[in-house]
Write a structure and sequence with these properties.
four-stranded antiparallel β-sheet, ABC_transporter-like_ATP-bd
Amino acid sequence: MLSIRNLGVRIDNKLILQGINLEVAAGEVHAIMGPNGSGKSTLAQTLAGHPDYQVSQGQVLYQGQDLLSLNVEQRAAAGIFLAFQYPVEIPGVSNIQFLKSALNCQRKQRGEPELDALDFITDVKQKMRQMQIDEALLYRGTNEGFSGGEKKSNEILQLLVLQPQLAILDETDSGLDIDALKRVAAGVNAFRSPERALILVTHYQRLLQYLVPDRVHVLQNGRIIRSGGAELALELEQQGYTTDTPSEDAPTQKREVPDDNG
């Protein structure tokens, strides 16, 4: 699904990612963890195609295609989805308009006809009930005046409606109380399938209690310094990000200590 090889990324002429290597297969969920400033969100934004992030080296293949040669719109049409850490408000564009336009753009890209209005609204309302989202939010401006939990739940509603091939969730769990966290996790679990892949960017193990990953990677100072199974997240929760034991996946990489902001 995704192959990242020696990826380096700059923003404002500052090198953030310094040689990322990562392989994500269809059907897998990978969690990216690490302290503040380690480059987690930079990786997510780069994969989605944010123009402020300049790739300085390396290669990214998505389903065998050169991802870096595609612009934002082309990546979205190819089935890449980014759930934002801070979802933006779009005043004047209702949630239902946004979802319908986005879905029909995806269908057009796949050579499929636009979805019938009745079929669309039936499907969306079923997914809203699944997410325990108030149907009234459909007719408000997208994310306009939504609470933090409503915004994050709305991101997962978009995920369920659009059904992308590769979903990247950038700290979707931040700012959520336990009930909202469970709703978000349930929605993401409903999305999981052998044909799709997920990358979860998170600080904390709590999301991974409800959304168990296949692999966990520790990103620190722009490099993946350690990888392991789901149990690695528990170890990080207990011990923090500093370790003296090399990972079997990265035996030659140097261990680094997080700064005071970690």
